[in-house]
Amino acid sequence: KEGKPEEAVAGYSELLNQCEAAGEPYVGCAIRARMARGAASVDAGDYVAALRDFSATRVIAPRAIPPALLEGNVWYLLGRKDDAERIFAETLALSDRKDEVAVAVEQIYYFRRDEEKTNAWIEKISTPSVREHVRCELYFQTGRLEAAVAAGKKSVAFDGGNAGAVERLGFVLKHLGRLD
Length: 180
Fold this sequence. Notes:
mainly alpha, single chain, elongated
């Protein structure tokens, strides 16, 4: 929805009220609305409201990954980095999709410009070609182009069938003008 985040929060609050009063129009509507209201609350700068929504969603769906990642991100935004890290580590431990969680957390830290944590979470990626692919992207985005080439080559060497790694290495090489 276009407009102010506060308007989105009000709209999702109304939807949640309707779900409570008349039942959900479809299974999962209240969870989706609560997650969306939490995201809108983050956009509005109301981190406490966002935490309430993400935490409530985690109570309803304790093994769900998105609400945990979003809650951890809010704790990070509030300066409670240890709490964020604890939630991320718990989510990783409970997940059957550990590499996906590690990549998602790495991205949260990357967008928060926390290079130490970004690198630490890259190391948690267990699949070598994926780990080096993510490292290649990080190096490219931070202007370390030769390191990006080296990581890209490692990624492709680990798994030449990783189309994303091959594409990223090609992109970096093209950017450097190495088209041979």
